[in-house]
Structures
1.
Amino acid sequence: MKTLTIVSALLVFGLTSCKKDILEKATPTSNIVPVSNFKEIKASENFDWKTSKEINLKIFGFKTASPISRTLIVSSIDDKIVFYQGLQVMEQDGLIKLTIPSHIKDIKVTYGSIQKTLSVSQSELQFDYLTPIAE
């Protein structure tokens, strides 16, 4: 029993001490050149330096029997970022110019209980107050 314990301990010690030390053998790549100012940075001609994009949200008014005004909110899908918030009269057309981060693919437009998701793949977006009737 004593021999089995000693052999087991030696075996465990031997297996755990055979790991490679990756950090010691890492060498820096030769194609990385340190730069001291921004003008020295080299990038592909196709690289887009912009971190934001401009979009226009065109709002189509809807005639109502009496004036209705609510807060129109344009936000990220998860509501963490609000790009625009303002009072909007439902009967009036409008145009809102927005600057949003380039990584945003969709936005949410909320007007009272009306919520619509719009893809920002184009620079011109359209919003109206009509909602599909649930079947």
Note: Residues 57 and 125 are 5 Å apart (CA to CA).
2.
Amino acid sequence: MSRASAARLADAAPVFAALGDPARLQIVSRLCEDGPLSIVRLTDGSRISRQAITKHLNALSDAGLVKSERSGRERVWQLRPKRLAEARRYLDRISVQWDQALDRLRAFVEQDDP
């Protein structure tokens, strides 16, 4: 693995770790569908407490997936689409590598035995 590939992998790891939690994935989904939301709005209809939502948002923020801005007395959270796009590009590269590996395996299996 090249140094550049290793650096990209190290950069992507926190994103996938953050998205690996079902509650965080649900928060990202809500922000994708509904746009910027306050913690109060993110908590509506959820069985997760505001305190837990805040912890999840901080983890997503640390991974670069969301950011917040003050709006009056509330903090409004929104996605950082660039970070999601980077993660998607990484998954696309992995998909291509898997397809190539499967093609090599298929060619090996289908080759005639001498």
Note: The first helix runs from residue 3 to 19.
